Amino acid sequence: MSRIGNKVITLPAGVEVSQEGTVVTVKGPKGTLSREIASQISMSVEGTEVAFTRESDDNKTKALHGTTRANVANMVEGVSEGFTKTLKLVGVGYRAAKSGSKLTLSVGYSHPVDFEDREDLTVEVPDALTVKVSGISKQRVGDLAAEIRAVRSPEPYKGKGIRYEGEVVRRKEGKTGK
């Protein structure tokens, strides 16, 4: 039994959910998102509540039931509130700068690393050591944040690198000297 799949999604004011075949579309004040759902899962919209049911109880369908409900709930949250990931740069001389539609990271390489803006995402640099990625799609925000973090992942000896806000880096002990 999928406990998450059986939960009902309550729609906030100004958000509409519609379904055409297997494509679910969510419209809200921040934009519109669409996603294809599995054919084994059916969706019903009654007033301000969205419910999901599955046609069989095999393991794959149970997994799809909860996943589909979670994906649509994230779409509803995205078009109503949006998602934000904050990254921190830790290290001597590490800095980020935004010029026009380009994010430039100086993180200890012999060259700066550039990222172009994505059409549906917003990248902000409130200060030289902080980068904020925001948008309506949780998946796209997380993907861009992961790409930025992968430029210089935190290393375990000094803790230098790009990390998510609140991320704890497990530190290792260095070599023992004689």
How far the N terminus sits from the C terminus, by CA atoms, comes to 59 Å
Total number of domains = 2
What is the spatial order of strands in the main beta sheet?
A: 11-12-7-13
> Which fold name is given in CATH as the topology of the largest domain?
Outer Surface Protein A, domain 3
Shape: elongated
Task: Please report the number of helical segments.
Answer: 3
* Helix and strand pattern: HEEEEEEHEEEEEEHE
Largest sheet: 4 strands, antiparallel
Low-confidence stretches: none
What structural category arises from helix and sheet content? alpha+beta
Helical fraction: 10-25%
- CATH class (first level) name of the largest domain: Alpha Beta
Rg from alpha-carbon coordinates: 21 Å
The averaged pLDDT comes out at: 92
Strand content: 35-45%
CATH-scheme architecture of the largest domain: Alpha-Beta Complex
Question: What is the name of the CATH superfamily of the largest domain?
Answer: Ribosomal protein L6
